[in-house]
Amino acid sequence: MAEAHQAVAFQFTVTPDGIDLQLCHEALRQIYLSGLHSWKKRFIRFKNGVMTGVYPGSPGGFMVVVGAYLSYNKYNQLDPSQGLVAKLGQHIPIGTISPRCQLVLRAVGGVLVGTGLWVSIIFVMRNVLKCLLSWHGWMYVQHGSVSWSAKLWMVLVKVFSGRKPMLYSFQNSLPRLPVPPVKDTCRRYLESARPLMDDEQYARMEGLAKDFEKNLGPRLQWYLKLKSWWASNYVSDWWEEYIYLRGRGPIMVNSNYYAMDFLYVFPTSVQAARAGNAIHSIMLYRRKLDRAQIKPVPLCSAQWERMFNTTRVPGAETDVLQHVNDSKHIAVFHRGRFYKVWVFYDGRLLLPREIEQQMDRILNDQSEPAPGEAFLAALTAGARTPWANARVTYFSRGKNKQSLDAIEKAAFFVTLDDTQQRYDAGSPVASLTSYAKSLLHGQCFDRWFDKSFNLIIFKNGTMGLNAEHSWADAPIIGHLWEHVLSSDPKMSYTEEGHCCGEPHPNLPGPQRMQWDIPAECQEVIQSSLSVARTLAEDVDSHIIPFSDFGKGLIKKCRTSPDAFIQIALQLAHFRDKGKFCLTYEASMTRLFREGRTETVRSCTNETCAFVRAMLRDETCLKLLKDAAEKHQSLYRLAMTGMGIDRHLFCLYVVSKYLGEESAFLKEVLSEPWRLSTSQTPLQQVELFDLVRHPEYVSSGGGFGPVADDGYGVSYIIVGENLINFHISSKHSSPETDSHRFGGNIRQAMLDILALFQLDKKSNK
């Protein structure tokens, strides 16, 4: 391959005649362009900070308000300074100042008063908007109808949102996450636990809850209330630290998740070309993110801040998230070698064909990995403490530190995978299983699991993502992935499958990272690899493209699609295991500042009653509707800050800080989630014309099982007629079988739909 171009700004040699200074004009030019790019970025960030800080006002609004104020005073021959100059005259003899200067002073005073008026208007508008965003009555409107109050609310939000809000404009107007009363949380917990306990177990838990509610609970609640008044969000920092960063087990499978490519469309089979378009599209998204040009909604946008240039750095007891403001390169892995690839040249972002050129250089490189380099990334796949110790011991100096910095400070990580993955209509089950497992864990040494996300390009041009979870939740990375997938057909390829355009004649090549990994470190790497491989081999994955029907028919049943699917999962699980279990469904709390997620406990008394009736072949349509309505009610409570689990989690953290033991909290938080579920929402529907191009559908994504004897289920509702399910469990558990559970899900979906007898209704 072409070796990296070493651009040296200047060289000097000592000769008998003195120092001979030799300048490299091209290198100096690149330094100038790099600095120009940096200052442009600083200016954009400064401008965005100003715009966000005065939102929903604007500099143009400032000119209008101040100009109108001064014009009004001039027309009515009033003092625009509202007496400020007169008060100033008590300390300074105004009479000694010329009339022109007095006029200027009055104008300056008028501008100051006008500015105060403008700030007051902004303050009022921002607080009105905060009050509007605190109202959640729109969530209780029945499907297919919009109340007058909801319509009025939407109009007012639009009016007080300003003309052109930016991505972070709503941040200061979002309400804080409320702390629910302890009594309400305990009551809702007992209600959720009832279908999973017999009478004796329930009576015991009820006693523990009442004791907690009367004694320790109010004391812990006081501290939590204090935190909610002081901090932006009383949950998110503790959730990030204790649920994610303090975990000492592998994050591969246990925490990281994946996103798939198109299901039926294969834009090109040229690996480097697909990488070229995808990397260029991702960098365009980063540019929009840096400029806050991503279309905002009145939801918290804080999680976007660490999407790029971010790495989870291991520590002995807790990890930390390392984020740099800017990065002009990406890190690329191929056949055991690591490369640093600059994505900017001549002060601009590389074009897709130029990025393809760089990827080709890497693919054509025939050099061998250095000793220990090929399996190095396994450190990020194993347990955290050995990786933390190895990082301090072997990667804190010299070339190892430089190369590790190049990876950790890269915009993101790219793997040019040597395997071929793709949906095969002739073997759909096996092909999708292989594809999902490759994205979830790969070979355990070909993904840098600590990076905020990995872009994986397979040998046949298929691609996907693997994302680290601590910095943000799946909808954030999903927003980026929708942008990439929707951009790919628009960027197009040549007839030979290459990116459009021409290679760059003078583009410096990728820089091969250098490593010096001693034998002791290689032993640690092999130990981490062994742990990771055991974990990966145990994953039982199954993907179902469910095309029998989709949300189109479900809506005809006048039922929420999400509630329909969650009830189907309960029916499928009971048929699979013969019992109900504690069920986790992720819900977002981004209606509040710095909100992340809350749990919807989908296994309810109403759902269990419906499942039992189904198993007895009884008429149970009313029970289904009751279960769906209950599910919707729980979902609304979770989204509006009235959930159960985050409140109990924070109360538990406070109890640990105070050194108090609570039998109630300890037991609640030790209950295993044997069915963990999540919906991947399609957020930018306008980017995909699924009516004209139904083939451009994403497969969605998935995650590993949460419990050793449980299931993980992710699903995406695509268009009107397709729902993709991603199921995971562990081969080592005798109780679970992902393929068996997938069959039960399919049958449960069909059985529930049959209750509505839509065929008979359409015939009538």
Automatic annotation (TrEMBL):
Main location: membrane
SUPFAM superfamilies found in the cross-reference section: CoA-dependent acyltransferases
TM spans (from-to): 103-125
Membrane topology (UniProt): Multi-pass membrane protein
Residue ranges of domain Carnitine O-palmitoyltransferase N-terminal in the record: 1-47
Record GO terms (molecular function): carnitine O-palmitoyltransferase activity
Residue positions of the active site: 469 (proton acceptor)
GO biological process: carnitine metabolic process; fatty acid beta-oxidation
GO cellular component: mitochondrial outer membrane
UniProt keyword list: Acyltransferase, Fatty acid metabolism, Lipid metabolism, Membrane, Transferase, Transmembrane, Transmembrane helix
The Choline/carnitine acyltransferase domain, residue ranges: 177-746
Subcellular localization: Membrane
Protein family: Belongs to the carnitine/choline acetyltransferase family.
Stored PANTHER family: CARNITINE O-ACYLTRANSFERASE, CARNITINE O-PALMITOYLTRANSFERASE 1, BRAIN ISOFORM
Protein known as: Carnitine palmitoyltransferase 1Ab (liver)
Lineage of the species this protein comes from: Eukaryota, Metazoa, Chordata, Craniata, Vertebrata
